[in-house]
Design brief:
The chain has two domains: 9-127, Beta Polymerase, domain 2 (2-Layer Sandwich), CATH 3.30.460.10; 138-253. Strand 2 (64-70), helix 2 and strand 3 form a beta-alpha-beta unit. It is built from nine helices and four strands; from the N terminus they run αββαβααβααααα. It is of the alpha+beta class and 255 residues long. The chain is globular and about 55 Å long.
Length: 255
C-alpha cells in the first residue's frame, strides 16, 4: 500500500515516517514533500529516505538523503523545486537524487553498490516502494564493488599526500571514508551469503579478526568527530589502505 497519497493542502502536514526525526529534519522533509506533490503532481511515483536518517541515526554532520522517482521530470519542475531544495540544503543538508521511472533499473545496475545499500537502509515516505521485489544483478554488484574500492584507495592516497601534516583535515578525510568502507563490507558479505546487513555491523563482522581492532576503533572515532594525534592518524591511514586491499581481493575472488 502506498505510504502516502495525494492530499488536500488544507489538511496540513500528515506525512508518515517523520515522527522520530529531529525537528529540523522533519520540518525540511515536510516542506520538500509538500513541494514535490504540488510541483510533480500525479507524475510523482515515490519518495524514499535513505542512509542514517532512515535508520533514525542522524548526526549533526549528517546529510538528509532522499531519492525521488517520477514518471518524468522537466527543467521547469526542477526550477520550481529549487528554492525549497536550497533552503533544505542550508538548514539540514538535504541531498536529493532525482530519477525518472524509466531510469530506475539502469541506476540500480550503474550504481549497484549504492542502491544495494539504499535497499537495506531506506524508509518509504510516499508512493510505492521501488525496491519491493527488485534485485541488483550479482555481476553488476561485484563489478561496481571493485570499482568503488579502487576509487577509495586512490582518493585516500592522494588526500594523505596532501593533508598528512594536518590532523584535522586527515581526520575529516577518514570520517568521510568510513561510510563507503562500511557499505563495501555490507555489499561483499551480501554477495557471499545473500544476507543483508546494516553497514556498520557488516564491517564489524568482516573485521572480527583482532588485527583489525585498531582500524575499527579509529574509524569509529573519526566518524564521531574526534581528531586523534597525527601519528595515530597516519597509522590509521595505513590500516585503512590495508583493509581496502583486503576487501578488494575478496571482491576480485567473487568475479
Amino acid at each position: 500500500m502506498p505510504a502516502h497519497s495525494m492530499r488536500e493542502k488544507a489538511a496540513g502536514p500528515a506525512w508518515t515516517g517523520l515522527d522520530d526525526l529531529p525537528d529540523a529534519a522533519r520540518s525540511v522533509l515536510t516542506d520538500f514533500l509538500d513541494a514535490l506533490t504540488q510541483v510533480l503532481g500525479t507524475e510523482l511515483r515515490c519518495v524514499v529516505l535513505f542512509g542514517s536518517a532512515a535508520e533514525g541515526r542522524l548526526r549533526a554532520t549528517s546529510d538528509i538523503n532522499v531519492l525521488v522517482v517520477a514518471d518524468s521530470i522537466t527543467e521547469a519542475q526542477l526550477n520550481a523545486l529549487g528554492e525549497t531544495l536550497r533552503a533544505g540544503r542550508a538548514a539540514a543538508g538535504l541531498t536529493v537524487m532525482f530519477l525518472e521511472s524509466g531510469e530506475f533499473g539502469a541506476a540500480c545496475e550503474s550504481f549497484a553498490m549504492k542502491f544495494a545499500d539504499i535497499k537495506v537502509r531506506h524508509r518509504l515516505l510516499y508512493g510505492e516502494d521501488p525496491f519491493a521485489g527488485s534485485g541488483i544483478q550479482r555481476a553488476a554488484a561485484v563489478r561496481r564493488l571493485g570499482q568503488v574500492l579502487l576509487n577509495l584507495k586512490v582518493r585516500l592516497r592522494e588526500r594523505y599526500t596532501l593533508d598528512g601534516d594536518h590532523p584535522d583535515r586527515l581526520a575529516a578525510v577518514l570520517a568521510d571514508l568510513t561510510g563507503p568502507v562500511r557499505v563495501g563490507a555490507a555489499t561483499l558479505l551480501a554477495l557471499y551469503d545473500g544476507q543483508e546487513r546494516a553497514p556498520k555491523a557488516a564491517l564489524e563482522e568482516y573485521c572480527a579478526d583482532p588485527r583489525w581492532s585498531a582500524c575499527l576503533a579509529g574509524l569509529s572515532a573519526v566518524h564521531r568527530g574526534e581528531i586523534p594525534p597525527a601519528d595515530t592518524l597516519r597509522a590509521l591511514v595505513a590500516d585503512v589502505l590495508a583493509l581496502l586491499a583486503a576487501l578488494s581481493a575478496a571482491a576480485m575472488a567473487l568475479s
